[in-house]
């Protein structure tokens, strides 16, 4: 695990000596300790990790809240009056370390609040030490992480008992807390140090956080803006954007966004600390039944300490009714020359019953052709339709002419056997079908008897184009 190292003051000259000392520190490794890598690793999301920032020389390190033991017993010596200070005695990084002094048997503690992310995965490395003599088994010196809710109730406390006796080598020893996931109601996370015995020392705090945040938005088709909700016409596509942000100090791997209602999401991806990525996906062909739908994306991912808690985000779709602007028409005509196309001198066919059906074959509307043969179904919503003419009672031996003999709008669009068009769909850019015509052709003339006189020009003219 590679972490950015804080610049330490005055370390360069003592690097070799520091290495030798760390080897010595390993000899007294305490439970929970980890081998030092030779270079102290201070920072992460901890503020003032090297405790070099103090309000005054020797004063308390900035950013810490001190809770001194109280009341102070009468006769407490000055060097055990509750105090949070910085001291040059055992600095690991830079020039000073932090120190709490307290009356024997009375607990004093100091805490530094760090970034609180519910579901975030926290780990801690800190260099600490204590004095071993004194109260015996009643003495405690602890550092660790504390998780509290909005009301200040402690939801979880992960302590690291400080057992390294500074007197043994004059140094602090590194301890590590394995990754721990913040409880759901966490609103405050603190690094703390506490003791009931003079004293506890620490330096080089490194709090690492693996966490991510998710936001989902839907695009408003009216103005192109993204928000938590949008009104979208039925039949159109809802465009969603899922933003995943690495909100911690650790790299994340295997981030995966799942949203079965939305298509087009990519596979798993990685995010460096502080990086973010926006993904888009669509839900096509919204129906009025989708009105009020809350679309939720679930996101999983893995930090250095293992899988992180699943995060969710949602956006709401309001579906506005389909525009009822569709037009369907428009003519039945007599195809006198039986060529399948509407010639200039061919009249309309009135009073022909016509039925508009939906995609399932149900009747949507009925009409009869006008005196000029025209018909119109208008103010239709988007959807699948079919037009059927009633060809069961055609007079004068009329039959349905050939389908598709010419250009759409000039030919006949119905199956001669059924009188129905093929099903078609209104929506998007196609909301008019005015080419759904039917040609009704008279019977072909009987073959004339063998000519016994002059040719009959009228007969050839009647079959002319
Ligand atoms: Ca320091
Ligand atoms: Ca014709």
UniProtKB/TrEMBL annotation:
<feature type="compositionally biased region" description="Pro residues">
    <location>
        <begin position="442"/>
        <end position="457"/>
    </location>
</feature>
<dbReference type="InterPro" id="IPR057172">
    <property type="entry name" value="DUF7850"/>
</dbReference>
<dbReference type="InterPro" id="IPR033764">
    <property type="entry name" value="Sdr_B"/>
</dbReference>
<protein>
    <recommendedName>
        <fullName>SD-repeat containing protein B domain-containing protein</fullName>
    </recommendedName>
</protein>
<dbReference type="InterPro" id="IPR006311">
    <property type="entry name" value="TAT_signal"/>
</dbReference>
<feature type="region of interest" description="Disordered">
    <location>
        <begin position="409"/>
        <end position="465"/>
    </location>
</feature>
<feature type="domain" description="SD-repeat containing protein B">
    <location>
        <begin position="327"/>
        <end position="440"/>
    </location>
</feature>
<dbReference type="Pfam" id="PF17210">
    <property type="entry name" value="SdrD_B"/>
</dbReference>
<feature type="domain" description="DUF7850">
    <location>
        <begin position="42"/>
        <end position="207"/>
    </location>
</feature>
<keyword id="KW-0964">Secreted</keyword>
<dbReference type="InterPro" id="IPR013783">
    <property type="entry name" value="Ig-like_fold"/>
</dbReference>
<keyword id="KW-0732">Signal</keyword>
<feature type="signal peptide">
    <location>
        <begin position="1"/>
        <end position="36"/>
    </location>
</feature>
<dbReference type="Pfam" id="PF25235">
    <property type="entry name" value="DUF7850"/>
</dbReference>
């Amino acid at each position: 695990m590679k972490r950015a190292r804080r610049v330490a003051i005055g370390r360069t000259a003592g690097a070799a000596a520091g290495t030798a000392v760390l080897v010595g520190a390993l000899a007294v490794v305490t439970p929970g300790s980890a081998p030092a890598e030779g270079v102290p690793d201070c920072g992460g999301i901890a503020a003032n990790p090297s405790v070099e920032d103090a309000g005054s020389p020797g004063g308390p390190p900035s950013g810490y809240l001190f809770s001194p033991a109280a009341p102070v017993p009468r006769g407490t010596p000055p060097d055990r009056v509750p105090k949070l200070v910085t001291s040059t005695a055992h600095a690991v990084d830079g020039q000073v370390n932090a120190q709490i002094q307290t009356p024997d048997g009375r607990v004093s503690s100091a805490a530094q609040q760090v970034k609180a992310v519910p579901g975030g995965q926290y780990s801690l490395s800190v260099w600490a030490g204590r004095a071993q003599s004194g109260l015996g088994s009643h003495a405690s010196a602890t550092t660790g992480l504390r998780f509290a809710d909005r009301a200040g109730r402690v939801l979880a406390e992960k302590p690291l008992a400080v057992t390294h006796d500074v007197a043994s080598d004059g140094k602090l020893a590194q301890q590590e807390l394995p990754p721990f996931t913040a409880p759901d109601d966490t609103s405050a996370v603190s690094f703390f140090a506490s003791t009931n015995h003079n004293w506890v020392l620490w330096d080089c705090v490194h709090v690492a956080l693996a966490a991510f945040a998710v936001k989902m938005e839907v695009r408003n088709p009216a103005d192109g803006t993204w928000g938590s909700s949008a009104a979208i016409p039925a039949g159109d596509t809802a465009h969603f954007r899922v933003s995943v942000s690495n909100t911690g100090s650790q790299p994340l791997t295997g981030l995966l966004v799942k949203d079965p209602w939305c298509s087009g999401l990519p596979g798993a991806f990685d995010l460096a600390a502080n990086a973010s990525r926006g993904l888009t996906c669509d839900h096509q062909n919204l129906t009025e039944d989708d009105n009020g739908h809350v679309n939720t994306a679930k996101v999983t991912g893995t930090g250095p300490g293992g899988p992180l808690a699943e995060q969710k985000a949602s956006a709401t779709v309001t579906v506005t009714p389909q525009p009822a602007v569709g037009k369907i028409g428009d003519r039945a005509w007599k195809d006198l020359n039986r060529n399948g196309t509407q010639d200039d001198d061919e009249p309309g066919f009135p009073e022909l019953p016509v039925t508009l059906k939906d995609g399932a074959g149900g009747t949507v509307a009925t009409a009869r052709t006008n005196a000029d043969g025209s018909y119109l179904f208008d103010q239709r919503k988007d959807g699948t339709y079919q037009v059927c003419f009633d060809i069961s009672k055609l007079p004068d031996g009329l039959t349905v002419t050939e389908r598709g003999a010419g250009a759409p709008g000039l030919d006949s669009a119905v199956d001669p056997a059924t009188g129905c068009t093929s099903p078609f769909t209104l929506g998007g850019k196609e909301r008019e079908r005015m080419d759904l015509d039917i040609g009704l052709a008279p019977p072909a003339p009987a073959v004339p008897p063998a000519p016994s006189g002059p040719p009959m020009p009228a007969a050839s003219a009647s079959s002319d184009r």
